[in-house]
Amino acid sequence: MADGKHGGVLGAVYEAKGAEEVAALYDRWSESYDHEMAIAGYRHPSICLALLARHLPRGAAPLLDAGAGTGLIGEWLGIMGYPHVEALDISQGMLAKAAQKGAYKAFHRLALGGPLPFDDGFFAGIVSAGVFTSGHVGVEGLGELIRICRPGGVIVLTVKNTLWDGGFASRIAELEGQGTISRVEETAPYVSMPAEGGTVPSRAVVLRRL
Ligand SMILES: C[S@@+](CC[C@H](N)C(=O)[O-])C[C@H]1O[C@@H](n2cnc3c(N)ncnc32)[C@H](O)[C@@H]1O
């Protein structure tokens, strides 16, 4: 069950005390996640997909879906002409559901926020939808995504307003100043689950690795 007027799993994730607790909550949610997010009018995957397609050429590979969940984005990436997408998530249950969609070439049960076992510049593009949000991953997860994205590649991610104002905006400005990334595009804040009551807006950001 989503948060807002329904209460439930996402609300519990926002309060979770650690990565393994988050993973266990998503494991339990995995079966009903797609249905409940559809009812909630969940927008992040469509917005991220549109931004990725606007800034990354058809055929770019490999891509990483970071915090892939049940694979809502992976399905569309294949249809849009990205032939090799890998899924990373902390929840084995969510990755198992993603595997059923037949859209990913590899699965990585890993935690964002710490070191990732990929070479520098390995991925041509990275997408992370609904992950940089309360109780999930904070700005500490950004550096590794930048490291594993190749120069010229793009990173599309959504960031909840509370995180944006709590350090994300300043970190991105700092990285731009250092010449590590450029901010190619940033949406206006929008509510990710419009059918839910009272959710804090997020924005989607497109970063190019320099
Ligand atoms: C709201 S869901 C979004 C899933 C998918 N991107 C989508 O848009 O449907 C958040 C996902 O982030 C994963 N997650 C939370 N914390 C994580 C972490 N530290 N590292 C990797 N994945 C994490 C959860 O297991 C869950 O699958």
Question: Secondary-structure map with pairings?
Answer:
Elements: H1 9-15, H2 19-29, H3 33-39, H4 44-55, E1 63-66, H5 72-79, E2 85-89, H6 92-100, E3 106-109, E4 123-132, H7 142-147, E5 149-160, H8 161-177, E6 181-186, E7 202-209
Parallel strand pairs: 1-2, 1-4, 2-3, 4-5
Antiparallel strand pairs: 5-7, 6-7
Helix pairs in contact: 1-2, 4-5
The protein binds S-adenosylmethionine.
The site of S-adenosylmethionine (SAM) has 21 residues, from helix 2, helix 4 and strand 4.
Describe what this molecule looks like in 3D.
It contains 8 helices and 7 strands, in the order H-H-H-H-E-H-E-H-E-E-H-E-H-E-E. Helices cover 37% and strands 23% of the residues. The chain has helices at residues 9-15, 19-29, 33-39, 44-55, 72-79, 92-100, 142-147, 161-177; strands spanning 63-66, 85-89, 106-109, 123-132, 149-160, 181-186, 202-209. A 7-stranded mixed sheet has the order 3-2-1-4-5-7-6, sandwiched between helices. Helix 4 (44-55) packs parallel to helix 5 (72-79). The protein has one domain (4-209): Rossmann fold, CATH 3.40.50.150. The model is unreliable at 1-7 (pLDDT under 50). S-adenosylmethionine binds next to helix 2, helix 4 and strand 4. S-adenosylmethionine is lined by residues 19, 22, 26, 44-45, 67-69, 72, 89-91, 94, 111-113, 129-131, 136-137.
